[in-house]
């Protein structure tokens, strides 16, 4: 199975766990059988590999997510990086070109496109496999997944099929309706549009060629901004006559708000949390290393991270966005391909962070114009390179770096350090990168 | 006015703002006219000084609070330190002896004893002044303050006066009753026992001499454990025939739970906090440097500190104690006479803290057996002494100290530093103090 996962932008609806560098699909909140926690993207990836061990997975995303995707899924996953954020049509077109030219997928091979964050069970991926077969057979140019609705939702687009058959031609598409219209659509047999597309690779490559003249993936990458900023639904699906929708009646949840996300949690808390016996329908997600105590609450979600603390009535939590937009925030925590960092202290002329480097990983070789830095290694072993001079380091070692000096650290075992940044104009933008000289 | 303020123990009912080293009376939560915040002890001290600029204030407390009291009230306040925690009779007896022998108060002078944490207005201290006059006149040996009850509380002791006069003889004392009994007492004209005592100094010194033979304050301090571990009410007030109670009808609140404490707050939040318009009767006290966002909550208190996060229905918050008892916690933040510290990171073999030293203050000169330390100065100027070697330091300087080495830092201006502790057995008890060698 060739599958393109669309990994969307930095949602703020799950603040403080999602932020400008961490999207909701990376929040590790779902308990696995071995007792650890996995994120939506890890869950979906695991489910795909379980359904089809040979599945070729490509994630279509922006540059900002690449590091986190490698952190959570390892280095084997394919990533089609969008040079800029546009919409789903350009993202799918570029990923299709990536499949053809980088992954060597043949033009006649079937491809599935699916969002990275549906909360589903294995039967969903079995359904995708079936769609793949339909696409391979070529009974139609484009197949969609229609989710059987469980309530008249205002959050989804609707597809009205021509028949009640398992696979049907499409009568019409309907945009997100109000509740009354949604109920009416459902009476007429409508299905939720699951955002899944199955087609032969050539089909989408042709659509892209209709818009832009390009030779291969790298050429399309360079011409990305020429592709219309439009959704795949508008650009392709709604115009396609030779299209079918396949029904799916299994579990399908969109975990876009705290309300829906907590419904999918197996336990009422993640992290250091205590509730007294008068709490009802309370969920606590605590990423901090201090306890959260909840007493006498009903229908409340509490989420605490290095970015901030949310305490919200579950229903109300869906209205969070404008409030988070107003918070003027520094990124306090991020997971990267090489490890993670956490801001511990912010002063006018200093910033103290904790850095954890995974074994075998290193920082970029870089310098800063306007700040000095001090590293105190607190765990692990590795090597530093400072202005070309290499030295071994271990817990307890201190490295001081003046502004302008080039530096990096390479972790041999997992390595932790406290970094104190000192200067008048401390900014993440004050960073020059260099090729490593060793 | 000679006034002894009884500063009680480490209440856990206001966790996470109160803890083993910070009692509720030190939480800076009350907005003052100049826009800053003051604690209960600061508020009471300011009110006393406003009522009587020459008041001689002595705080009876334990060793653990001395540093914080000086931090909040300065160096001028008298402190009678209890060698061990017993009860109010020994505490008052020792403080009386401190007044006589250290402060030079004459045996015939009147003295007022009062809790450090009633939330009251200036009329309360005017009432204390009046009690002082009664005590000076000698119309009785002991005067109490009887608060006119506003509801049949189960939390207070009751005093039944013989008459409804402003000042009356006492008919009988009643221990904390249930609500029905309380209502019955109130029908019989009972007053709440405000825990205030006025007497001539000699009166209490004699009571102490009845129990223990001592020559002066220092002798009584040494013999402190010989004093009965009993309350002043039991030991003295309830046995005294020549006693009067004075009525007080002004505001008097006991801010012992989050429910009552938040009622006394002038604003709904302290610190970085946002509430949406659907929040009703919500209070947020946020000591962290990240935002708290509350949505759709009713009658809830949120309190966040470096120790942890409480989210509680206000009524339920009075049942907090057993839950806090179960939390196994390291002290993550403390204010001291010399400044403050905050734990930023805890690892198996390292601990990183931020230390802020007030200008002119210094740490003890000390060493550790089992850990190395690194200081990175992030703001201010001062001097370090390491194994007798003195050197000037400023922001950006790094000082490394091996286990066993003696060290201190003296702040010239306000000085901030990041301290990284490194070793296998990091403990607050691993500290040897030395006299400074300079």
From TrEMBL, chains A, B:
CDD domains: cupin_PMI_typeII_C (cd02213). It comes from Candidatus Eisenbergiella merdipullorum. InterPro entries: Cupin_2, Mannose-6P_isomerase_type2, NTP_transferase_dom, Nucleotide-diphossugar_trans, RmlC-like_jellyroll, RmlC_Cupin_sf. Residues 355-418 form the Cupin type-2 domain. GO terms for molecular function: mannose-1-phosphate guanylyltransferase (GTP) activity. It holds the Pfam family NTP_transferase. This is Cupin domain-containing protein. Residues 4-267 form the Nucleotidyl transferase domain. GO terms for biological process: GDP-mannose biosynthetic process.
């Amino acid at each position: 199975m060739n599958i393109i996962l669309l990994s969307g932008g930095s949602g703020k609806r799950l603040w403080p766990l999602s932020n400008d560098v961490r999207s909701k699909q990376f929040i590790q909140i779902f308990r696995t059988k071995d007792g650890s926690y996995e994120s939506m993207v890890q869950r979906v990836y695991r489910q795909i590999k379980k359904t089809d061990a040979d599945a070729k997975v490509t994630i279509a995303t922006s540059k900002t997510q690449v590091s986190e995707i490698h952190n959570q899924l390892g280095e084997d996953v394919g990533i089609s990086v969008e040079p800029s954020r546009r919409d789903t049509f350009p993202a799918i077109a570029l990923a299709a070109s990536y499949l053809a030219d980088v992954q060597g997928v043949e033009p006649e091979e079937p491809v599935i496109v699916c969002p990275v964050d549906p909360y589903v069970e294995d039967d969903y991926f079995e359904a995708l496999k079936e769609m793949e077969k339909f696409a391979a057979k070529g009974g139609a140019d484009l197949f969609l997944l229609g989710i059987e609705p469980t309530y008249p939702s205002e959050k989804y687009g609707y597809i009205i099929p021509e028949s009640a058959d398992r696979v049907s031609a499409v009568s019409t598409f309907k945009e997100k309706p109000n509740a009354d219209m949604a109920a009416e659509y459902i009476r007429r047999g409508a299905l939720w549009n699951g955002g899944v597309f199955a087609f032969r690779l050539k089909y989408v490559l042709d659509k892209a060629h209709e818009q832009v003249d390009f030779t291969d993936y790298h050429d399309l990458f360079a011409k990305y901004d020429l592709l219309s900023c439009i959704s795949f639904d508008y650009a392709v699906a709604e115009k396609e006559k030779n299209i079918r929708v396949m029904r799916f009646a299994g579990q399908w949840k969109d975990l876009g708000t705290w309300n829906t996300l907590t419904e999918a949690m197996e336990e009422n808390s993640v992290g250091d949390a205590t509730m007294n016996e008068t709490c009802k329908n309370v969920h606590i997600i605590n990423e901090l290393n201090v306890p959260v105590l909840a007493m006498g609450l009903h229908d409340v979600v509490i989420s605490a991270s290095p970015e901030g603390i949310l305490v919200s009535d579950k229903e109300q939590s869906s209205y969070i966005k404008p409030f988070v937009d107003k918070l003027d925030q520094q990124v306090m925590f991020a997971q990267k391909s090489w490890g993670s960092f956490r801001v511990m202290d912010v002063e006018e002329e200093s910033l103290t962070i904790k850095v954890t480097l995974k074994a075998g990983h290193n920082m970029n070789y870089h310098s800063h114009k306007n700040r000095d830095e001090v590293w105190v290694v607190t765990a692990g072993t590795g090597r530093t390179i400072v202005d070309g001079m290499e030295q071994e380091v271990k817990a307890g070692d201190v490295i001081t770096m003046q502004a302008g000096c080039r530096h990096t650290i390479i972790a041999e075992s997992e390595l932790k350090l406290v970094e104190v940044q000192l200067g008048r104009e401390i900014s993440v933008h004050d960073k020059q990168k260099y090729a490593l000289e060793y």
